[in-house]
Specification:
Helices cover about 50% and strands about 5% of the residues. By secondary structure, the protein is mainly alpha-helical. The protein has two domains: about 90 residues; about 170 residues, no CATH class. The strands form two sheets. A three-stranded antiparallel sheet has the order 2-4-3. It has a two-stranded parallel ribbon with strand order 1-5. The two termini are about 50 Å apart. The model has no long low-confidence stretch (mean pLDDT about 90).
Amino acid sequence: MNFSEYLQNRQEHLKLKSAAEHYRYLGGKKKLGIGVRYFQQISSGVKHPTAHLLAAIFDQVDTNDKRIIIVAFFRAIFNPPNKAQNLLLDYIENHLTPAIEGATSSVWDKSNVFTFLNDEQLEFLNSQPAALRCYQKTTLLEKVKKTDLNISELLLEKLISLKLLTTHSDMIIPTNNTFRIPTYANSGSSLVRAGNDLISKILSLYFARDGHPNQEVHFRIQLVTKTAGERILEQLRNFNKWVQSLATEADPDEKDLIPVIFYGVTKIMDMKEL
């Protein structure tokens, strides 16, 4: 689909009778930076779209259309494309990912007090799978009926005494603290080791060892250049931030929410480690 086709489809979808009406709907010259006649020629495919027009429409279209409109713009600009332009078009089409709207208020940006899990908490969670599952479920859903948790009274009392969870009436809820797992960037080696063990324990709770249609597992160990290795590490960090941006607060009235576990590991190794 090129840009003119996109405009025509959008005009039809909005039930607008003409390109001129579409032009006024989009904000006219003040918003689009071009006259109605020029817009009509772009809509009919006679003229190429302008970057100003792309930016103005991009600001108004649905999230699902953002990739479509960028690809359509470059297809219209490079029509017909030469060899170099084809390379650019191929790059845009193959590497520009569809947008997904993040949550309006991320659960990671809440004003709770953030603190790191301590030695005692880590040791307990690492040694008690039932307690770890209870803690993960309650933290994710924000409140769970006590009767819905498959856990002994003794383990639940320990979770409460460690200030990992608390109670409210017949509900189990997280404490006001939001706990983070210690990492290499902020903690000593013993805490980091226990934190990495905890991540492995969490993964083992939910990982389908026999496989699952909704589970993807990919593994590579290979030789690459140092620059490529650093890029792989950077890409994983960026992808993690994107995944994190999609987090949505638990809402019992929202039936579309599903739990997802994401686990990523990339390590640039030394030859001596092989």
